[in-house]
Specification:
Pfam families: FR47. GO terms for molecular function: acyltransferase activity, transferring groups other than amino-acyl groups. It contains 8 helices and 12 strands. The chain is α+β, with helices and mostly antiparallel strands. Helix 1 packs antiparallel against helix 2.
Amino acid sequence: MEIVPEGKNFRLVTEDELAAVGDILVQYMPESLKFHQTIQTYLNNKVWDFNFYVAKNWPEDPICLHFPGCTSTPNSHIYESVTIFCPSERAELVDLVTSEDVLIDLTQPLYLNFTNEAIVDRLEKHYEAHEKITGDVYVCDKPPEDATDELPPDVELVRLQPEHMKAVHDLYPASDIECREVFEKLVAELPAYGIFVEGQLAAWMVQSYYGAMFSMQTRPEFRRKGYGIFLARRLTKEVAARGYKPFVVIRPENDASRSLYSKLGFEKRFRTVRAVLRPR
């Protein structure tokens, strides 16, 4: 599909400009963390073809978008999904999105990846949010110390490869918005580990295209054996060593994940929402 260089309120950012956009986003941390690290990962590894846009009055109007917002949507249309950043105290800038009728078909559903809840609240003046999933962003400012724990002799830590990704994607809870192909590209470029018990994949964790850690899953029959915290500690340290700020998105009802990451020094920073937005 042809990439649109300019919309009504936004313009396409060239690759040469992206680092400077990231520099401006730093002043809006931690809220800008996910968008900032998406740019960072794109520049370092380009695991997916994202298109970044900023407001025409950037940086005075500090709002930016990237299309697609996720790697799988019903019609595989680049402008069908979006991720949005603006500071929560400037949520009125979201009106530039809801009036953006060149890049976005305002008569069709828009698939929104995890975005600050203040932005979503403003979007809901024009859209009805369906299939809402809330996720709290937890950030680790200081990577954990090395643990002395060792895996049992029949348990092996393995660097995951693309051929492992069918098993990972089949059990990934957000497989409706992230395609298997992006997992295959992630593990080829970014840290990704699995724990194998007697040759069977028991638990896994992958660094995402937005610099966070996602897909930390343990098969039910292998839970409560310490595999999850072993993987999380390993990946947290490796993500930080690569120059990223480790963070995770945890659903509020997921007490087990919150407890695990709290032990590693992760702290809650803000709330995000994922939704399908349908025009009112």
